Amino acid sequence: xxxxxxxxxxxxxxxxxxxxxxxxxxxxxxxxxxxxxxxxxxxxxxxxxxxxxxxxxxxxxxxxxxxxxxxxxxxxxxxxxxxxxxxxxxxxxxxxxxxxxxxxxxxxxxxxxxxxxxxxxxxxxxxxxxxxxxxxxxxxxxxxxxxxxxxxxxxxxxxxxxxxxxxxxxxxxxxxxxxxxxxxxxxxxxxxxxxxxxxxxxxxxxxxxxxxxxxxxxxxxxxxxxxxxxxxxxxxxxxxxxxxxxxxxxxxxxxxxxxxxxxxxxxxxxxxxxxxxxxxxxxxxxxxxxxxxxxxxxxxxxxxxxxxxxxxxxxxxxxxxxxxxxxxxxxxxxxxxxxxxxxxxxxxxxxxxxxxxxxxxxxxxxxxxxxxxxxxxxxxxxxxxxxxxxxxxxxxxxxxxxxxxxxxxxxxxxxxxxxxxxxxxxxxxxxxxxxxxxxxxxxxxxxxxxxxxxxx
Length: 456
Prior knowledge:
Blueprint: H1 8-25, E1 56-57, H2 59-62, E2 70-74, E3 87-91, H3 95-99, E4 111-112, H4 114-117, E5 129-130, E6 157-158, H5 160-163, E7 175-176, H6 187-191, H7 195-203, E8 206-207, H8 209-213, E9 223-224, H9 243-251, E10 254-255, E11 273-274, H10 284-289, E12 296-298, E13 301-303, H11 306-312, H12 318-322, E14 333-334, E15 349-350, H13 367-370, E16 381-382, E17 385-386, H14 387-392, E18 398-399, E19 423-426, E20 429-432, E21 435-438, E22 441-444, E23 452-455
Antiparallel strand pairs: 1-5, 2-3, 4-7, 6-9, 8-11, 10-14, 12-13, 15-18, 16-17, 19-20, 21-22, 22-23
């Protein structure tokens, strides 16, 4: 086989002129003596007729310079070829090296797309023409799914770029210096679109640690069955880092209802950042009162309208003053009545034991209830006689704290101190307390006994 001895373009002209003349001659009729001009390229009505007709045409083909990529070898007369003119058409170079004659090499970065590594540019691109931008054989993402699983396109919830088939918004097509050929590193890639999250991370007081580390610790970048592209729904995903809190949902005798609805933990916590501790969107008490602003009927009994109640009973000390509901209640779940963090009896009457008042004794001195005579354990005394002891320490019918005190109020609208109730629900009777405090004692005349006075 010998290479042609004169310029390649002249051979193309010679070959196609002869071939074009032969074809034109057959079209002459008795009434029409016209002849087509000799063909000067590979594109004729008989050869490669549809070439260069695509929406996107490779520049050499568009300019009619086929020889930029192809070489023509004239074969001896005794060696017949399939190509007209008895020539063999070959590529001037093989694989990606042919492309790199004009295009900048795409195999120089740290992470290279597999087809580029193998030099197989035409696995994705048509070297002549295409209906797709970039001479892609198929549009994105269909071309990507020739190799990659298309399961992400079948997810219930899809990332917007994936849904729109815009893989290249996050990935370089050919090569990159980051894992998976990402166009930006880590969270910066997400922040290119999610500006609100970027701002929150830099301005909010409390930022969720996973948010600082990597968005994909909680979110799937392509698609998932859970809302907001969560890798798994709340509270399941929260259990990855917070197993104890989430376990309360299944193990607790009493469960806080927001934990078990569709939003789960997100009812009370912002998953990204907040200005309040524990990623709360509001101050603790304000958050609780956003739901407890009406009377509720629950498995644990009726819960009053706490927002209205506390508005009428302002002030206080300890947890109430600091607006810390969680000092007494576990917001996730508890084995105790009213979601309390420790045991406290729900009965009106009971025999005394330390364990029944474990909740109260987290703040109050136990000796104020167990010592018969004292000068300092409590101010509710007549001289040194401990009146708390008198009320609480009765076999079977000891009055529990809730008989006289409301734990969620430290001063009534009437000015009563220590969370004293104005009335007490007793069976079907709303019994008046008739308690009047004084500087050094007070008087009490409830329905259960006549008026009694005490002085310290």
